[in-house]
Amino acid sequence: MISCLMVTRPNPTRIAFAKHSIEDYCRQSYVDRELVVVVDGNAGGEDISALSAHIYSLGRGDIRLHLSHPGVRLGGLRNLSVAIAAGDVICQWDDDDRFHPQRLETQIALLEQGKHAAVYLQEVMQYFPYLRAIYLTNWRAAPAGGHPGTLMARRVAMVRYPELGASADLGEDLEVALSLSASGRVGYLSGAPHLHLYVSHGGNSWGAGHHAMLACELAVSKALLLRREASIRSGLAPFALADNIEVIGHNGIAFRL
C-alpha cells in the first residue's frame, strides 16, 4: 500500500486547492493506496468542518482525516502523518499541488525496480495560475537533486522531519531529502514533469519571490520546450487547465496551451 500524506491548515482558499488535490488522488491508476489528511489544529472550526464535510461526501473508505493538537509545527504535522500511515510506502501529497493520474504508478515502479529507499521527481511543471504561465523546471542541480515535495519512500527508510528551528516550518521536506540522499539509495525520475504540477499561487509557505526565483533559475530553455511540446501537451491534458496558458522557458515563451 502507498500512503499519500497531506498536511493542511484549511481556509476557504486552501480548501479550494485541497479539493483539486484530493480529486487527483481519487483518479490515481495505482489501486492499493490511502490518503491520510492531517489538519492543523490551529485552523478555524468552520474551515475544519467544511473540509471534513467534503471528505465525508466522497464516501471513500481510503481517505482518513486526523485533527492535530494546536501549536504543532509543520515538521511535527508531517511526522504525525507518517505515524498514522498504514502503508509500507509513503508519498508526500501537498494540499495545493496537482498530480497526474499515473503519478503513483510511475513513481513506485522506479522505487521497486531500482531497489531504492526513496524516489524523487527530477522535473516538475511549475504553474503560476495568476500569470497563466507554466515552466518546466529541472531540479537536478538543486541541493536535493529533485523536487523535495515529490517524495516517495519506503516507510522503513524514512527519517523524521525537523520539529525545532527554522526548518520546522519552512524547508522541512528539503531536510528529509538531504538526509535520504546522503544514504546513497535515492532514485530520481526524469522525463515525466507532468506527474506533478507545482502550483505557485502566491499564498504558498514560501513567498512569491522564492517561487519566481525557482522558475528563473531552474526553467529549461524555450528550444527544449518546443522539442517536447507534444509530450507536455498530452501530459498536462488530464488537468483541464484554462486556455491560453503560456509555456515559458528561461529565455522566452515557447508555445501556448
Secondary-structure element series: EHEHEHEEHEEEEHEEHHHEE
Q: Count of helical segments? A: 8
Question: Count of DSSP E strands?
Answer: 13
What is the makeup of the main sheet?
Answer: 7 strands, mixed
- Whole-number average pLDDT? 95
Question: What global shape is seen?
Answer: globular
Give the class from helix and strand content and strand pairing: alpha/beta
Distance between the termini: 35 Å
| Radius of gyration based on Cα positions | 17 Å
Strand order of the largest sheet: 3-2-1-4-9-6-10
Note poorly predicted spans: none
Give helix % range.
Answer: 25-40%
Percent of residues in beta strands: 15-25%
Index terms:
257 residues, alpha/beta, 6-stranded mixed sheet, 24% strand, globular
SSE map:
Elements: E1 2-8, H1 12-26, E2 33-39, H2 45-58, E3 63-67, H3 74-84, E4 89-92, E5 98-99, H4 103-113, E6 118-121, E7 123-128, E8 133-138, E9 152-154, H5 172-182, E10 186-189, E11 196-199, H6 208-218, H7 222-227, H8 229-236, E12 246-249, E13 252-256
Parallel strand pairs: 1-2, 1-4, 2-3, 6-10, 7-11, 8-12
Antiparallel strand pairs: 4-9, 5-11, 6-9, 7-8, 12-13
Describe this structure in words.
The model has no long low-confidence stretch (mean pLDDT 95). 34% of the residues lie in helices and 24% in strands. The strands form two sheets. The protein has a seven-stranded mixed sheet with strand order 3-2-1-4-9-6-10, sandwiched between helices. A six-stranded mixed sheet has the order 5-11-7-8-12-13. It has eight helices and 13 strands.
Short description:
This protein is of the alpha/beta class. Helix content is 34%, strand content 24%. The protein has a seven-stranded mixed sheet, sandwiched between helices. It has a six-stranded mixed sheet with strand order 5-11-7-8-12-13.
